[in-house]
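User: If only I could read backbone structure tokens as easily as an amino acid sequence. Those tokens are not coordinates but codes from a learned vocabulary of shapes. Could you go through the record with me and say what the backbone is doing? Here is the record:
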Amino acid sequence: MKLILIILILNVQFCVFALKPSSHLDQSLPFEQVLQAIRTDDPYLLRSAFDRKIQRKTADMEVWKKRLTEGKAYFFKRFGEYSTDDFTYEYFRSDKELIVYFKGGQVMEKKVKRQGGTYRLSN
């Protein structure tokens, strides 16, 4: 009986460990690109984080520069001074959703899709 209880406890601990958000996933790359674009003030990197459909729909780089400025203000207001290490991620394949956590709390869900060998943010 004690052995079964120990096995169950160890199994539960393993499951909890396995479900923790990760500091990097292949699917988190486009969100990490957004963070990097904001930090380096790079509208081209911001644009590359989104799927081709969104990129074609908004080809004007002035629009991306405006989005970058708005994104900087939004991220500063929402997260203050932050590090990329403050963010962790989970990916749900069935929904094609990236779940973003900031300092352990869930802050957003983003659709992602695989295009050209990499993941990109999508609608």
Remarks:
- The beta strands are 87-92, 97-102, 105-115, 118-121.
- The two ends are 52 Å apart (CA to CA).
- Residues 1-18 have pLDDT under 50 and may be disordered.
